Amino acid sequence: MKEIIKVNRLTKCYAGRPAVNKLELTVERGTIFGLLGANGAGKSTTIECILGTKKADEGKVTILGMNPYTDRKSLFERVGVQFQESSYQEKITVRELCEVTESLYRETEDSFELLKKFKIDDKKKSLVKDLSGGERQRLFIVLALIGKPDVVFLDELTTGLDAKARREVWKMLSALKEKGLTIFLTSHFMDEVEALCDKICILKKGNAVFKGTVSDAVKDSPFDNLEDAYLWYTEEEEKNENI
């Protein structure tokens, strides 16, 4: 498979302390890759360095064979990004926001069809600020897909969705993967990670403590399920018991 994202010895420090330490990652075309870790483990810094919105202190990153820091304009056309804390104008409707997003790209998906797929087409005249948390989350995924990206970054993609809606989103993303879309996601829901991810990386204090498949993550731990294995890798379980 063709490598879409390649990270070599990525290091980023703040006040002399590494937020990400010599990280190595490879994400192949048409796969779903999950970056996991507790809050403060280095996930956001890793993604920002991969996207070129932050410059790494050391190491090399390529997306689609390009340097995200120097080739940002070229990459913009081919990379979709959805972040949990996305914020837009207060007084803009869903339809207007989709139209603004479409205007940024030369070639786009039909935004109304995407809204229908994610079951928020009835909200096209609503102000974005009036959407529920789950509706807003689905809209942000739609916006990330409008530009027909080759790779999309999704941050806590189903936060605020009920169980049925989460599973519907999983099904849609799996279908997009089958068509060749590469998806790089973060999630705190281990059932989501199990359902979607071909490979994962677990971070602890900026260091990769596991890289591989979900089944290998469980097999290489003392536990028989991903949630307990994840807590073991990150030592969250031990910390929680000591609180």
Automatic annotation (TrEMBL):
<comment type="similarity">
    <text>Belongs to the ABC transporter superfamily.</text>
</comment>
<keyword id="KW-0813">Transport</keyword>
<dbReference type="InterPro" id="IPR017871">
    <property type="entry name" value="ABC_transporter-like_CS"/>
</dbReference>
<dbReference type="InterPro" id="IPR050763">
    <property type="entry name" value="ABC_transporter_ATP-binding"/>
</dbReference>
<dbReference type="InterPro" id="IPR003593">
    <property type="entry name" value="AAA+_ATPase"/>
</dbReference>
<keyword id="KW-0067">ATP-binding</keyword>
<dbReference type="Pfam" id="PF00005">
    <property type="entry name" value="ABC_tran"/>
</dbReference>
<dbReference type="InterPro" id="IPR003439">
    <property type="entry name" value="ABC_transporter-like_ATP-bd"/>
</dbReference>
<dbReference type="InterPro" id="IPR027417">
    <property type="entry name" value="P-loop_NTPase"/>
</dbReference>
<feature type="domain" description="ABC transporter">
    <location>
        <begin position="5"/>
        <end position="230"/>
    </location>
</feature>
<dbReference type="GO" id="GO:0005524">
    <property type="term" value="F:ATP binding"/>
</dbReference>
<protein>
    <submittedName>
        <fullName>ABC transporter ATP-binding protein</fullName>
    </submittedName>
</protein>
<keyword id="KW-0547">Nucleotide-binding</keyword>
